Amino acid sequence: MSDDTVYARGLRDVAACQTRISFVDPLGALYYSGYDIDRLIGRVCYEEVVYLLLHNKLPNQRELDDIKSALVSEMKIPKQIVKWLRNAPKNSHPMENIRTAVSQLGEYDFNPDENSEAANNQRALKLIAQVPTIVATLHRVRHKQDPVATTKEYGFAENFLHMFRGKPADEEEKAALDRFMILHADHGLNASTFAARVTASTFSDMYSAVTSAIGTLRGKLHGGASERVMNMLLNVDNVGEVEAYIQGMLFDGKKIMGFGHRIYRAEDPRSRHLRKVGKTLCQRIDRMDLFRKCSAIQDVVHKERKIYPNVDFYAALVLNALGVPKDFFTPFFASSRIAGWTAHILEQYSESVLIRPTSGYLGAYGTKFVPIEKR
Ligand code: COA
């Protein structure tokens, strides 16, 4: 390293790019293109948020109508990918199949060499529409069921849930998934978005950038946490066991999944909203035991470590109550974050700068070469 090179472990507190898309306030707020999500939740639908992230402004009624119908009409995926999903290994994690299927979408791009802004905007819209279809189709074919077609009259989240479960969603379920998707749509320069931007910064194609993001999201320190939160909820038999369970985990030096955050030093605002959604859904399905377990875990972790739940903690409660199996929790996260990923990829293309940091070298210099026969 030269004398003026700064090493920041884990890139903590390093601004690796500039963005207009979203801002994560350490004091516990999240802004999408200037709007506090607390002001958006309950007032806008997921499609409006998609428009906001892509265009940096909220749509008017005509623009909203257009993006709604464009998204639903773009949901259909190539039949070759449906066939591939049918034959994909059933014992692999869904995220593995999804990562590959999204990468394959690139092979079916009609005009891969067309890289105008308009062509990339269109690609972004298609990806936002088709990642949820891949997720829903994979779930159906894994259960030997036929994929469900889109319904023109349904909203985006409603279509997604219908295509995933094979039965129409009711009002409360629609609203719950819509909120889930809004709250997962973007989050500053999180690890998967960073991965997407690094790939896009080489002017690689959008499918490659999204594939990088999906692989990054899967890890347990990122979007893979929610599935492990569900494991924890299932491991703890009742509220009475929570204290001992958490103490035991902490004593063993283990991290509690769904807690802590790199940026927030206060409560994650997304978690606050998802907690409300989760409570309503648990009441409906008579699973308040799960909600009470979550509350008890939150209290004990805060008492012991002064850390708060992040988005993945109550996401597990919400998705479980919507009938989503736990290995599909991260795929639902990807189906929403695709909005933010593509918005960032477009922004990165327009920045036109290679993201290429340096590294601190810890090895030796001038090591004597030994021919293979003498090693
Ligand atoms: N359980 C227990 N302790 C935790 C914790 C958790 N979930 N998250 C952070 N801590 C503790 C760390 O052990 C560390 O303590 P120390 O300073 O005594 O060593 C301190 O809080 C700082 O944590 P650190 O891991 O350095 O923060 P980070 O910014 O590198 O990591 C996360 C952030 C999200 C990766 C981390 O909080 C984590 O692993 N959480 C669990 C996984 C998760 O829920 N991921 C989803 C993120 S949205």
Could you explain how this protein is built, in words?
It is a single chain. The protein is mainly alpha-helical and 375 residues long. The chain folds into two domains: 22-219 and 332-351, Citrate Synthase, domain 1, CATH 1.10.580.10; 225-321, Orthogonal Bundle (Cytochrome p450-Terp, domain 2). The chain has helices at residues 37-40, 46-55, 61-73, 79-87, 94-105, 117-142, 156-165, 171-184, 191-201, 206-217, 225-235, 239-251, 269-284, 288-305, 311-321, 329-351; strands at 22-25, 29-32, 35-36. Strand 2 and strand 3 form a beta hairpin. Helix 5 (94-105) packs antiparallel against helix 6, helix 6 (117-142) packs antiparallel against helix 16 (329-351) and helix 8 crosses helix 16 (329-351). The mean pLDDT is 97. Coenzyme A is lined by residues 10, 221-222, 225, 255-262, 305, 307, 310-312. Residues 10, 221-222, 225, 255-262, 305, 307, 310-312 line the site of coenzyme A (COA).
> Which H/E pattern describes the elements?
EEEHHHHHHHHHHHHHHHH
Q: How many helix segments? A: 16
Radius of gyration: 22 Å
% residues in beta strands:
under 5%
CATH homology-level superfamily of the largest domain: Citrate Synthase, domain 1
**Please, what is the average pLDDT?**
97
Overall shape: globular
Q: How does the helix and strand content classify structurally?
A: mainly alpha
Beta strands, count: 3
> What is bound: which ligands?
coenzyme A
Which bin fits the share of residues in helices?
55-70%
State the low-pLDDT regions, or none.
Answer: none
How many separate domains make up the residues?
A: 2
What would the CATH topology of the largest domain be? Citrate Synthase, domain 1
**CATH class call of the largest domain:** Mainly Alpha
The N- to C-terminal Cα distance equals 30 Å
Largest sheet: 3 strands, antiparallel
Strand numbers in spatial order across the main sheet: 1-2-3
CATH architecture of the largest domain: Orthogonal Bundle
